[in-house]
Write a structure and sequence with these properties.
Blueprint (H helix, E strand, L loop, with lengths): L3 E5 L4 H12 L3 E8 L5 H15 L3 E6 L2 H5 L28 H16 L3 E3 L15 H13 L8 E3 L7 H10 L22 H12 L12
Parallel strand pairs: 1-2, 1-4, 2-3, 4-5
Helix pairs in contact: 1-6, 6-7
């Protein structure tokens, strides 16, 4: 029997690399994508579908979570809050979506239990990121304990975070090494046609490519 892994795949560079690492490790991938009312929902969904095709993924879930827009409190889900363009600053930014990864992991765990998967891959990055509290190693460890406590005794799910201690430049280098189709990924928080180049996510991505001495294949405004 093939070993199975549920990969939480947003369509961004980090989650895509995590999925390719799962494939490289011999897992049969079950891809899960969440539409949660984010500004770039349509573009991220396209990235997800393109990457699933690249990876030849047969089993995939596109899960709608509409309540994040009702909760608000994030520039990603509330159009009345501007996405900051001043660059990464200390503290938790307004682009943080309350407990998003905890909810994502909980839903993915239900899918993993149903599919008899033994692992879940999530592309969280702690070392070189926007400072989200649900992207830390300690948070993932506690979620893993809770998930295995709250599922069947026969269920044992490992949460894999292969990128958590990597820098963005390391992520770019590893992605190029594994021939990840970075042209299909999307990271921008603001735009769906051409990446803005000035939001936190774009800045982190562009800086990673610069340090890795590589060229980002996606289009940016003004280029």
């Amino acid at each position: 029997m093939n070993k199975k892994a549920v990969c939480i795949l947003s369509g961004g560079m980090d989650s895509t690399l995590a999925s390719y690492i799962a494939k490289h490790e011999g897992y049969e991938i079950i891809a899960v994508h969440f539409n949660y009312g984010q500004r770039t929902q349509k573009r991220e969904l396209k990235a997800f579908r393109d990457i699933c095709e690249d990876l030849n993924i047969k089993e995939k879930y596109e899960v709608d979570i509409p309540f994040f827009t009702q909760i608000g409190e994030s520039a990603l889900t509330d159009v009345d809050i501007d996405v900051p363009i001043e660059g990464v600053k200390p503290g938790v930014p307004i682009t943080y979506v309350p407990f998003r990864n905890g909810i994502f992991l909980s839903i993915a765990a239900a899918i993993a239990e149903k599919e008899d998967a033994t692992a879940m891959f999530i592309g969280v990055v702690e070392e070189d990121s926007s400072g989200y509290p649900d992207c830390t190693d300690s948070f993932i460890t506690k979620m893993k304990e809770a998930i295995n406590q709250g599922t069947k005794e026969s269920t044992n799910i490992d949460i894999r975070t292969p990128l958590v201690h990597m820098m963005k430049s390391d992520i770019v280098t590893k992605a190029l090494e594994l021939n990840v189709p970075l042209q299909h990924t999307w990271s921008c928080y603001k735009e769906e046609e051409q990446a803005c180049g000035v939001c936190d996510s774009c800045r982190l991505r562009l800086n990673g490519f610069k340090i890795a001495n590589a060229t980002d294949p996606i289009a940016y405004k003004g280029n």
